[in-house]
Write a structure and sequence with these properties.
nine-stranded mixed β-sheet, four-stranded antiparallel β-sheet, 577 residues, 34% helix, single chain, 17 helices
Length: 577
């Protein structure tokens, strides 16, 4: 493949303008169903299962073999309001307390009514997942962590224990809401396997290695009638290569990013060379659930260029295709510049007792917050640069936990390398400030204030809880670069914005706020609960919530057009098919 062809493939837009037709009879459909679900990840599977439970015929289309970003995730579902696992662990929770906390994270990206409904439905949605075959448990870790070890399945997955996020009037103590699917290793594969099997058991048909190129829309009514899809032929060696590329890209995506990008280009090349065009009719509705756009370079350049050096997180299909399909018929993108940047500094559990400072030497965030909150403050307000400063005592404690505390290798190995190979050592605050080119007087004030707070003389100015405060009593200091540019400590990023939807049904809405007939969106393709400030488990929980909502509404869509006439074959030449 020539360099020029590589450039072409990497920049090609796979989604075309909608095909406008006078009626469904103008198209020679190769297949017909009630509901088409585009994208077979957590949201797509939830939509398909729910639509089948409502009695609709369903066809799920996926560019690869299914799974999307869900299968690559940690398999954590954010659930609360009084789940049986919370109760077994000795915690009280209520939908009201859950809603009050999530208001800090959602920041109005969905209405208060939708947020309250999400919280009220949380117990039922977790039970629904169990019916599909996912398992949960009530065992908890002994410390705050970004992801619990094997054998631990309930934890504080967000900012619940941070004082500023609490509401004593609704809860005496914060409740853990991160429900990790029971599995060995990271649980995303087990989470999706349950939904995948349930999708098939419910009788939904599937069409994999098929890419939706554009929507088909009725001119007069604006109703989405179906899709044009490019399907790879069975038995072709390049089709098998395409399937293998999905597996390889998933392995390469984090540690061999250039190789993974080359794999995505090769997959697109195969699709363009051997894909067979078909038209598939949706009598009731089309649900878009293809994930985010993190691997769409054009959209990243336009909306989030500062985040491109980060660790791009998602599946090969997270290329913005669902977003662009919706926009092709008048759908509106919202908050497309909103990127989650996960700067986790726990575990080791004692790292948040250190101080995080900017390039001036000033603290700017409570160190104990969830990683996406710290990442947001660093990226949006500090130019993507910051230092974590610990002392010898904290370093010893952190090293012990890395070596003997049962951490995942992806947690312990970078932490050890950063502390013992990368950190800048200072004999004193002044010495460290000089080596880092920080304002020495300003940095000293940060330490003086933090020490006074640790001694209980004042409140911590950043709102740290008393158990996370630490008094620095002299001796060596170690500054760890936690900037987006630090290659030894990759900053994982993923896109959160998506299509605006009717929050009652999941219908995609246009610029005038009207439902686009026959079109729905779910998961990270749509604006939802997780579209503002991400916390672990919120995306999968929203996939279930929004997926079931869209599937139910699409199955009940009563505005379906007439069946295509059997006497009509082909499409009007004037519309270019």
């Amino acid at each position: 493949m020539t360099s020029s062809s590589k450039k072409h493939i990497s920049t090609i837009n796979p989604v075309g303008p909608a095909l406008e037709v006078r009626s469904a009879d103008d198209v020679q459909w190769s297949d017909t169903t009630d509901v088409i679900v585009v994208g077979w990840g957590g949201a797509g599977a939830s939509a398909a299962i729910e639509a089948r439970e409502q009695g609709a015929e369903v066809l799920v289309i996926d560019r690869f073999s299914g799974g999307g970003a869900s299968v690559l995730s940690g398999g954590v579902v954010y659930a609360g309001g009084g789940t049986k696992y919370q109760k077994q662990a000795g915690f009280e929770d209520s939908p009201e307390a859950m809603t009050a906390y999530l208001k800090h994270e959602v920041n109005g990206v969905v209405s208060d009514a939708t947020l309250a409904r999400f919280s009220r439905d949380s117990v039922a949605n977790l039970e629904w997942l169990e019916k599909q075959g996912a398992g949960f448990d009530s065992t908890m870790p002994a410390y705050k962590t970004s992801y619990p070890p094997d054998g631990v399945y309930l934890y504080y997955s967000g900012n619940e224990v941070v004082p500023a996020y609490g509401n004593p009037a609704l809860a005496k103590k914060p409740a853990p809401r991160g429900h990790r699917v029971v599995a060995k290793g990271q649980s995303g594969a087990t989470f999706f396997a349950a939904l995948q099997q349930s999708t098939l058991a419910h009788g939904a048909r599937t069409l994999t290695q098929a890419r939706v190129q554009r929507l088909v829309r009725e001119q007069e009514t604006g109703r989405v009638l179906g899709v044009e899809v490019t399907v790879l032929p069975a038995g072709d060696a390049r089709t098998e290569r395409h399937k293998k590329l999905d597996e390889l890209v998933a392995k390469w995506r984090l540690y061999q990013a250039p190789r993974a990008q080359a794999g995505r280009r090769e997959a697109a090349q195969i699709e363009s060379e051997i894909g067979e065009k078909r038209f598939i009719r949706a009598r009731k509705g089309v649900v878009l659930s293809t994930g985010g756009y993190i691997f769409n370079s054009e959209l990243m350049d336009k909306h989030a260029p500062a985040y491109k050096p980060g660790w791009l997180t998602g599946a090969a299909g997270c290329d913005g295709s669902g977003l662009r399909l919706g926009q092709s018929v008048g759908g509106i993108g919202q908050d497309l510049n909103n990127i989650s940047a996960w700067r986790f500094i726990t575990p080791p559990a004692v790292w948040p007792k250190g101080l995080v400072v900017n390039t001036k030497g000033e603290r700017f965030c409570n160190e104990q917050v969830y990683g996406a909150k710290l990442g947001y403050e660093m990226m949006e307000k500090q130019g993507g640069k910051a230092w974590l400063i610990i002392d010898s005592k904290l370093r010893r404690q952190a090293a012990w936990q890395c070596l003997f505390g049962g951490l995942w290798a992806f947690q312990s190995m970078p932490a050890l390398a950063l502390m013992y190979k990368v950190a800048v050592k200072g004999k004193s605050v002044a010495d460290l400030a000089q080596k880092l080119n920080l304002d020495a007087a300003l940095l000293q004030r940060q330490f003086d204030t933090a020490n006074a707070a640790a001694r209980g003389e004042i409140d911590d100015p950043m709102g740290k809880s008393t158990d996370m405060r630490h008094e620095f009593k002299g001796g060596s200091l170690f500054a760890i670069d936690i900037s987006i540019s630090q290659k030894m400590f990759p900053l994982a990023v993923l896109s959160l914005g998506g299509l605006k939807v009717n929050e009652d049904s999941g219908a995609v809405i246009d610029g005038a706020g009207r439902d686009i007939p026959g079109l729905y969106a779910a998961g990270r393709t749509a604006i939802g609960i997780a579209s503002s400030r991400y916390v672990s488990g919120l995306s999968l929980a929203d996939c279930v919530f929004s997926g079931r909502r869209a599937g139910k509404a699409a199955a009940a869509d009563g505005s379906r057009a007439a069946e295509p006439s059997a006497a009509v074959a082909g499409v009007q030449e004037s519309v270019g098919v």
